[in-house]
Amino acid sequence: MTEKLENIFLEFYIDGTWVDYSDYIIDTIEYSYGISEPGVSSRISEVGIFKCLLRDLDINLVGKNVRFSAKYLGNIHRKFTGKVYLQKRKVTTDKKSYLYLEIHDWIEECISKTFSSELLTNTNGEYVMQFVLGDTRPEYYEFDQTAETYGAVFDLSSNTSKALSELSKVCNSDFGYLLLRHAGRNLLRFYNRNYKFTQVTKIPSEDGSYIVKDTNDSSITQLVSEDGIPIIADDKFYTVNLIDEAAETEYSLGDQIYTGVNFSILPRKIDNTTVNLYTLNNPIELLPEEEKSGIIFRYTDPLQRAKNVAGTEMITPIGTTDYLFNTMEDGSGVDITGYLQVSVQFFSTHAVVTLKNNAVTTGYVTSLRLRGKGVYSYDLISKKIVNNDLSEKYSENILEFTAPYQNDVNKLTTLSTRLYDNYCNEPEEKLQSYKYIPNKNIFLMLIYIYIDVGDVVSIQEDGKVDNYLIKYIKVKIEKDGIIFVEYKLDKVIDLSDPYTPWVLNDPEKSLLGINTYIGG
I need a surface site. Which of 250, 407, 444, 483 has the fewest CB within 10 A? Predict the structure, then answer.
C-alpha cells in the first residue's frame, strides 16, 4: 500500500463551535449514501448512514451536526455530513464502555417532512421541488428544470403530502435522479432526463505543478473555494477511466430481464374558464339566528368523467348569483337572501362552508354553487410494448413504470419506446458494482477523494469501454488507514428528448435543421 490519508477529522457542532473528536475513534468507520436499489424505478437517494465507535464520552450528541473530512495532499476534503441520529453505550466482555454513533444525512429530514399540498398548475419540477422542501432543503442545491411543464401536481385526493413521495413523482415523471452529494459540500442535485451523462467526470492531476498554489499557505498545494470545491489551474485533469486499477467488479445476469414495457401516465385536464364545481342538491334548513359550520362540499366534475377533482382560482360566492335563501323549501316563498351569511374556506379538493341565518324567521338555502377552474384527474393511460420472442424464451417480466405528472398523451409512444429499446433486450452481463482500495496508488486515492454519486466514470474491460453513473457509494476505513470503497453503478442510457427546443439568439439552440427541429 503506497498511499494513505494524512489525517481524518470527525467534528461535532457543539455550542456554536466545531469540536474534533477524531482522537476518540477506536474502530473502523463505515458510511454509505446514494441509491442502493438497482432498476429503473429507483431514482432518489436513500438515507445516508455513517457509523463509528468512540471511547466513552459523557455527552449527549443526538441531534448534533456532524462532518467527516479527510486530508490528502495538504488539502481537507469533506466526505460526509449529517446529524447524530442514534447514540448507544456498548460494554464489551472486558467491561470497557464505548459509544456507538449512527449519523444520518439530510435525507432523514426529508423522509419525515409533510407539507400542505396546495394545488399547483402549469409548473415545472424545479419549482415543485423548491415548494415541497421549503426551508428543509439543504444549503446547497441544484435543480434542473424538468423537460415538460406539468399541468397540475400533488395528490388531488389529499391536502397534505409526504415530501419524499412528491419528489419521487417528479423524478419518475421526468426519468430524473435526485441525489445528495457529500464530497466537497452537501449538495442536493436533481438531474433531469435531458441531462447529458455522456461527459465523464474529471479529477485533478496529482502533479502539484498542475494545481493552483495557495500563496497564503505554502503547505496547501491546491487552492479550494470557501465551500471546499477545488479550483483547478488550466485544464490539467485526469479523465476517470477505470482500467482495471487493481479493482474488483461484480456483474449480474438475469435479474433485470424485461420482456416488455407498460408505461403509464396520469392525464389531467385544467379548465380554461370558470365552471360550477359544486351544486347543492337538497335545501338546507336554518332556524332563526342558527349557524351551521364545518359543512364540507367536495368538488365534482360537471361532466362526471374525472376520477378526482380539484379546484383552482375559486370564487367567493355572491348572493343571488351563487346562492339563494328563501322562507319556503321549494323556493316559492319570500326571498331573504340578504339575511344569509356565507363564509367559505377553499382547499384543493373541497371547500368548508359556514352558513348563518341572520333573519328572525326560518329560512332554506335553496341554491348554492361553488365556481372555479377544475383540475380533473382521470384513470391511468398506458402504452404496452411486448417482445414476444423474449417472452417465449424467458418467463414474462413486464417493466411497469408510471410517470404520474406526465400528462402529455403524445409522450406515451415516445417514452415507452425509449424504455423498451433500453431495457427489453437479450440478457447480458451488466456491471453492477466496482470495488477498490484507494491505498494501492495515487490515482485510486484521488478517485476516492473527488468522485461522488452523480458522477460518470468510464470503465474499460476486455477492450470494451462503457460509461456508468455512480448511484451509490459505500466506504469502510480500517483502524490502520486502509480504505475499502464500493460503487454501485448504472450503465448510462439516453432517455432525453431527441430534439432541442428553439431558443432565440442562443447559438447552441437556434440553428434550424442542425441542432433544432420544428416540433409536430
Answer: 250
Distance CA 237, CA 465 (A): 19
Q: What are the helix (H) ranges across 337-493?
A: 388-393, 411-423, 442-450
pLDDT per residue as tens digits for the range 470-494? 999 999 999 889 999 999 988 877 7
Strand partners, 191: 177
Place of cell 400528462: 407
The residues that bridge with 398 in the sheet, in sequence order, are 260
Q: How far, in Å, are 42, 63, 197 from residue 250 at the CA level?
A: 19, 37, 22
E-only strand ranges, 247-287 = 248-252, 260-265, 268-270, 275-279, 284-286
**CA nearest neighbour of 159 among 119, 114, 131, 117:** 117
Residue 116 CB partners (closer than 8 Å, separation 6+): 159, 160
Q: Please give the grid coordinates belonging to residue 63.
A: 441531534
Classify 333 as helix, strand or coil. coil
Task: List, as one string, the DSSP characters of 119-186.
Answer: -EEEE-HHHHHHHHHGGGS-SEEEEPPPSS-EEEES-TT-SEEEHHHHHHHHHHHHT-EEEEE-SSS-
Give the mean model confidence (pLDDT) for residues 110-132: 84
CB-based contact 35:93 (threshold 8 Å)? no
The CA distances from residue 437 to 68, 483, 486, in Å, are 19, 6, 9
What's CA 477's distance to the chain center, in Å?
A: 29
Q: What are 293-308's pLDDT values in tens digits?
A: 999 999 999 988 887 8
**Which of 13-22, 36-45, 50-59, 208-217 is predicted with the least confidence, judged by mean pLDDT?**
208-217
Exposure on the CB side of residue 94, measured as CA atoms within 13 A: 2
Residue pair 451/438 in contact (Cβ under 8 Å)? The answer is no
- Polymer length in residues for the chain: 520
CA distance 412 to 402: 11
